[in-house]
Amino acid sequence: MRYCINCCIHLLPNDLHRQCFRCRGPRHNNQKCPVCKGESKIPLYTDSKQMKLLAVLEVRTDHSESWNGFFCLRKGKLCSLIFGLIIMTLVMASYILTGAKHGLLLIPSPFHYGAFTSNPSLMDNESLSDMKDHYQPSKMNISYVKDYPSIKLIIDTITSKIEFITRQRPDLEELRKQEPHMFSVIPNKFLPNSKNPCWYEEYRGNTTTDPYATNSYALYSKRFRTIFDYLRKVFWNHLYHYKDKHYRLRCLPHFYIIGQPKCGTTDLYDRLRLHPDVRFSAIKEPHWWTRKRFGIIRLRDGFHDRYPVEDYLDLFDLAAHQIQGVLQSEAAKERGKTNNIIIGEASASTMWDNNAWIFFYDNSTEGEPPFLIQDFIHAFQPNAKLIIMLRDPVERLYSDYLYFASANKSAEDFHEKVAESLQLFENCMLDYSLRACVYNNTLNNAMPVRLQVGLYVVYLLDWLTVFDKDQILVLRLEDHASNVKYTMHMVFQFLDLGPLSEKQEALITKSPASNTRRPEDRSLGPMLPTTKAILRDFYRPFNTKLAQVLFDDAFLWKRT
What we know:
By secondary structure, the chain is an alpha/beta fold.
């Protein structure tokens, strides 16, 4: 039940009590008011029973009407308003204090490029090390044009420390000690009547045995289970039976597309797959040599069980079945026909990613890895052929950033990440050799963008310590994009592939490009001109050395 405190009238539900406003005017007098006259005590009705209050309320009616609106406000609304203001004040205070603590507001950057941000997508990108705690974002309202002189000092320091020193190649016995199981599985000789490196391996299972039950690629990835389901169905039909024993044909790749990422390797892979004499692994990029054999799926997830070499060889079983069909055909048996089918593998990390060495090999070389991927590949396949697709490293880095960054992508954010990465690289170069920094796992995971992937000549020189120059074909994406037919002919000749019909060649060379930039990334536009100038300066000495090694000034990328 409700009562009007001004005129003591019992209010019914939904009663607006307009009489109160008629009796309460500027000339209102309690003694003359017919309602309020003679009433000094307010009766209180509760549950239809009258009660007398001990206290007497003095009703004041000489206030102006403007104050009525204020007193009619509900206490809940007023308390909510006050509480909201308090919470807002506390949040703002917390933000300011936290920003000051982490250098977001009060600690200015020593360089004009300001904001240092972490990379949310580093593989690959891959959790960042504690080095990032030393570099935090600062004010965003900066002029990027003024960055150049400050960052140029960093680049000059890096350039002054560059030395291209030939690495010491490990001997075969040292490699055997590091990977004894691998050497026990892969033979040192292959079938003489096959262009592709293959051999027969005794299979000791029976018809009820699942040959792929423990394959790590099938266990850890749902994408590959369909492939292995098919392999299980046809596996027994492709065993070779000889003297009451069963043998399976095992193969390694004849050639590797080893790099680099965001340089057109996917397009090259897709076109080569269309050649009738070329097969690839069941998975385009197994990353076995660089990651899976060490148990790395993603660095941020830590280490899993190491993938044995048998799991890697399983990926070539589909191609091995076709090669075996050629070798066991009647024409091959009668005429001694040689198999011309070759297998390729296209992990774009093979050329550059040696980050896992620090966890498995002794660090006895002042920060430089004692063994590299190419040492082991050469130990098993000294005649392997290698294809490298390169691109202007400046544009490669921006494409890499757009592809792997997960949020807040912009030309300004890219600029800041480049600036941070350069400073981190400079810090490493002050204490270590160029090779030690390029293969430094901590540094590579700390840099928000993968600057090191564009140092092509460092990796190429290390590959040339174990492979001859005529075993490596180096292409430019710019040439491939402008004349696909020419570059594909170079690849066919390098791999010694047979001639194609006009229809087959048209299918390979006229198919649309693969793995192009996503529309949403194109809308971000190009990098800032200042960022491009900075990166040009950084990569220039490496491009110059690369052009010298390859005797081709096109690798200077002056016109891109």
